[in-house]
Write a structure and sequence with these properties.
alpha+beta; 3 helices; about 25% helix; binds FE2/S2 (inorganic) cluster
């Protein structure tokens, strides 16, 4: 019996070693295929993006603001999704934009400000507005615009942000 037959380790021949070894050519082929695959995926992604429509999904410019009874007299209610204040005064309703006319920051209603009368304040550069949108101070060049507000047939408030109206126009309910 020879040493090779008694050895516990498996033996391999030189021809088997040659079969398992990755040649330089195989290695380069695999690298090339990988690079082509990545380039192909990239071009598919770019082509898909090119042909898909460029659509921006923005909230509707018109919206229902609910029953007038939801708003107490003397209140300014911020509707976050629409970025509008629904203001109720003894004479009726108006809808005021919550977007500052300076650089477009979203303002905040501060009910305790102006000796408890409440004030719309811009957190960015300090512009301040009364609840009717008129400017009190700060860098904002214009008052906050008023949007058209009306009543639907079933008695809900309806705001159209594409229609700016004069601040004096109040919806009487
Ligand atoms: S964006 Fe409102 S004060 Fe500048």
């Amino acid at each position: 019996m020879s040493d090779t037959e008694n050895s516990p380790l498996p033996t391999t021949t030189s021809s088997e070693q040659a079969g398992n070894a990755i040649t330089r050519r195989d290695f380069l082929n695999e690298i090339t295929l990988g690079a082509l695959g990545i380039a192909g995926l990239g071009s598919v992604a770019v082509t898909y993006q090119f042909f898909s429509p460029n659509v921006l999904f923005e909230p509707s410019t018109t919206f229902r603001a609910g029953n007038p009874d939801l708003y107490p007299v003397g209140s300014a209610t911020f509707l976050q999704e629409q970025q509008v204040y629904i203001v109720r005064v003894p004479e009726g309703f108006y809808a005021v934009s919550a977007v500052c006319t300076h650089l477009g920051c979203v303002t905040q209603w501060k009910p305790e400000a102006d000796q408890g009368k409440g004030q719309i304040q811009c957190p960015c550069h300090g512009s301040k507005f009364r609840s009717d949108g008129s400017k009190v101070e700060g860098p904002a060049p214009r008052p906050l615009p008023h949007f058209a507000i009306s009543l639907t047939a079933d008695g809900e408030l309806f705001v159209d942000k594409l229609q700016n109206i004069k601040p004096a126009q109040v919806l009487k309910v």
